[in-house]
Amino acid sequence: TPIKHIVDTPLPPPPPEEKYLAYLPHSGLSNQRIELSNALLLAYMLNRTLVVPPAFLGTVFGWMNRDRLADRLEWLTTPKNFDKICQQPTPGRLSSYLQRSRCEEYRNFGIITWPELHDFQPLIDAGIKIKFQSIVSVKQMKKDLQIMHDNDIYMHQDIQLYDWRLYQNKTEAAALLENKLNYFDSFGGKRYFKVFLPRHFEARKEKLVYLAGIFGSTRFTIVEPKHKAMQKKIAQVLHYRLDTPLGETVNSIVNYLGGKGTFMSVHFRTGDRPFKKEIATNLSNFVKNMTDIVGPNDSNKCIGIEYNERTQEQEDKLLSSIGNHVRVYVATDHKNARGEENR
Predict the structure, then answer these.
(1) With 337 labelled, which of 87, 116, 195, 251 sits at a CA distance of 20 to 30 A?
(2) pLDDT per residue over 236-249, tens digit each?
(3) Predicted local distance difference test score (pLDDT) of residue 6
(4) Which UniProt keywords apply (predicted)?
């Protein structure tokens, strides 16, 4: 699907004292949403305006070093004559073959603005400052934000996907470092991450703090009530809108499956290496957990699950009362989930 470029709404020149936060997105839409959530919270904590890139759909590249990621995003989001550039390779013209991989990426790549997915007004009303940016380019941001000198931009360089984590509790952060627990397990063994306190970014005086990756649901450990409340509000706002063409499609699927509250859904991942390695364990846990949820009650009728806001106590009570006939839909990336060898 060809990329539809969004023309930025002309903005008045930013005030001289305005400071900004930006980041480089990567990976699938759900991962980008986690990045956006983290960036919104950090912008609020730092009192900076968040420069939000578009949402990317289709086949999206994963994390890579900053220069490569920035280069690919800039090429794909900067308006150009893609139809002419991405013609079939011409025999004898080496450049037409070198461009081929980029063009394949372009053909499997799409752009949508985040406001088409979420209503950001509650966050704006709550004090988060946002500027939506269609072109992911340092050059374009320098122009739009009136940044005259490169030394007024702080570029954070990541050396790995989970390069750093932020902790508000200084004692907890110090204990992690002292006990050498600031790591996560990966296929290559322990990977240590940097431990930051908020002041690491608060101390930056540059007009633009430009992060690379900010992915990870455990990226921030928040303890201050004000920021925990905002974190919760961000999570609520980032529920997908249903009053858009995409939302209407989702509604149609939900209604086709029986409507809200009539089924449970599970996303069972098997494709990525961490999930592929644990298929047997995850499947066993899935069966056990679903059995625990539906309980020992014997019923020939699939019961409905009322759709509304519930406290954790109400949720636990509801789950303990569900009979053992519950409609469950499983989405999976397994290539042959219904194959005989997988039964």
Answers:
(1) 251
(2) 999 989 888 888 99
(3) 43
(4) Carbohydrate metabolism, Fucose metabolism, Transferase
CA distance 120 to 247: 16
Question: Residue 74's closest CA among 11, 25, 115, 33?
Answer: 25
Q: What is the DSSP secondary structure assignment for residue 324, as one 8-state letter?
A: S
Q: What is the DSSP string of 161-228?
A: TT-EEEES-HHHHHHHHHTT--EEEETTEEEE-EEE-THHHHT--SSEEE-S----TTSEE---HHHH
When the pLDDT of each residue in the chain is averaged and rounded to a whole number, the result is 83
* Structure-block tokens of residue 25: 């997105």
CB 21 within 8 A of CB 51: yes
Residue 255 token pair: 């209604």
**DSSP structural state of residue 342:** G
Which DSSP state fits 190?
E
User: The tokens of 201 are what?
Assistant: 């970014």
Instruction: Return phi, psi of residue 74, to 5°.
Output: -65, -45
Tell me what pLDDT residue 222 has: 96
2, pLDDT greater than 50: no
The H or E element spanning position 50 is: strand 49-52
Strand-pairing partners, residue 166, are: 196, 220
Task: Identify the three-state secondary structure at position 8.
Answer: coil
List, in order of start, the domains of the chain with CATH numbers: 20-237 (3.40.50), 257-342 (no CATH)
Cβ atoms < 10 Å from Cβ of 325: 13
The answer to whether the CB of 89 falls within 8 A of the CB of 83 is no
- More confidently predicted of 184 and 248: 248
Residue 17: what pLDDT?
81
- At 308 the pLDDT is 56
| 203 vs 190, residue with greater confidence | 203
